[in-house]
Amino acid sequence: MQASDTDAPQWPMIIGGKKVEAQSGKRFDIINPATGLAYCSVPEGDAADIDIAVDAAKKGFDIWSKMSALQRASILMKAADILQERLADFVDAEVLQTGRPIREMRAQLARTPEWYSYFASVARTYESKVHPFGGDHVNYGRRLALGVVGLVTPWNHPLLILTKKLAPALAAGNAVVVKPSEVAPITPLMLADVFSEAGLPEGVYNVVTGFGAGAGAALTAHRDIAKIDLTGGTETGRKVAALAGERLIPFSGELGGKASVIVFDDVSVDRAAAATLFASFVAAGQTCVQGARLLVHESIHDAVLEKLIARANALVVGAPDDESTQMGPVVSDRQLATVEKYVAIGKDEGARLVAGGERLSGEGRDGGYFYAPTIFADVSNDMRIAQEEIFGPVVCVMKFSTEAEAVALANGTDFGLAASVWSSNIARAKRVAEDIEAGIVWINDHHRIDPSSPWGGFKDSGIGKENGIVCYEGYTRMQSIVLNTSEEPFDWFAEDGKQKRYS
Ligand code: NDP
């Protein structure tokens, strides 16, 4: 059965403030990962729709970029309030499209309005600099909006990741065309009503649903896009960055990860196990900063592993809309196949499977993409399961004996997005954190985020930053105004014997 053939909801996409179909008239289904069944459909936008959306965004930009920072900030504050009032609807939609447990989505979405209020405040309080040019000249920098920005987003945190890009982009005065994940485009579509009611001018927020190879590729190659901001896999990031390079426009990429959780011998076994569960199995492991590699000091390794196995086996894996569920399904049959493939690779490589390693059915899980929390012990750092992004509920456990060895293991991957260091010896934890080649390092925590806190990877994990003032500035270009305040006549070529200077 296809949702597009039934009376299931048929979502339109958003262009120029209107709810529209794709030019081709095609639609595709959105699947509930907990049942494997289609429950709604969206238009299959392609290059023709992207052209129309970019044109609409250019018109939106003309209005939005000319509004004062105060006007933009007050619309974003209003959007934050409306989103806050509607959070329950957004939570339900995220649970349906991602399969993530309702308790997780409530906790995550409760914070999304903060991004709009934070960046509204940044726009309102941002102070330009006066540079020490010297002499009779006054030199100041102006931050200007870029224009129409392309935002390409993934399925794992559909609303949060879009929000992390959208709030600074809008605050700085840009218009956007969003290409959400083909798997989870519903909450980005729902956001259009929030902005419309908040007073955002038509055409500033456009969403073209479709596939990466169609709408995504057309958006990122479009000649009128002023910046591309993508969250996705590293290979997608490379392709899109190359297109941006050809056109000399800024590119920001939040890409893949393989984060380490480093646990020293002064951490209690209970705390180490709880830390790893949180780092590794939230979102069924489908987060870019997932604690995919647990590095434990050899003196507590066996005790931590034993506790971790017991707690992982006890996690309640089931229907995402059930309040007692602790872990839901993975997002799609494709993602499930990837997890199964890597578990087979891990076994072939000689890692010891000590928990999970199988698909789960029964008890309301039939038809859904449920997989047991999975732990591999005796993993060595050169194994593919230790190096490649699995993006599922699988954690690889390794042991270390010295601080230097822990750092070398943590740095021994091509990725460099995040890591966490667990120790009650703060001097050691700080030292180790600063030696780790990752864009985000937590000490005695994991997964924590705030709109003010810069977020982004080193190495193959990407380029650019989300969150914070650095991100706001990344959505602007700087114009340097040099003003000569002197009335004194100046004639470079006059042979008057005066010492001439450029400044
Ligand atoms: P993908 O790279 O497959 O897709 C990301 C987005 O890019 C989707 O909207 C996709 O469309 C689109 N896309 C795919 N190919 C192209 C193309 N050639 N041109 C333009 N757009 C394209 O990633 P996933 O959606 O599978 O998300 C998981 C990945 O995202 C993981 O690698 C994860 O680590 C990373 N991620 C990184 C985060 C970070 O902060 N660093 C945070 C969260 C996730 P479609 O949906 O149709 O495929």
TrEMBL record:
It comes from the Bacteria. Gene3D superfamilies: Aldehyde Dehydrogenase, Chain A, domain 1 (3.40.605.10), Aldehyde Dehydrogenase, Chain A, domain 2 (3.40.309.10). Transmembrane segments: none annotated. InterPro entries: Ald_DH/histidinol_DH, Ald_DH_C, Ald_DH_N, Aldehyde_DH_dom. The keyword Chaperone does not apply. Keywords: Oxidoreductase. Residues 20-481 form the Aldehyde dehydrogenase domain. Pfam families: Aldedh. The keyword Oxidoreductase applies. This is Aldehyde dehydrogenase. The lineage of its organism: Bacteria, Pseudomonadati, Pseudomonadota, Alphaproteobacteria, Hyphomicrobiales.
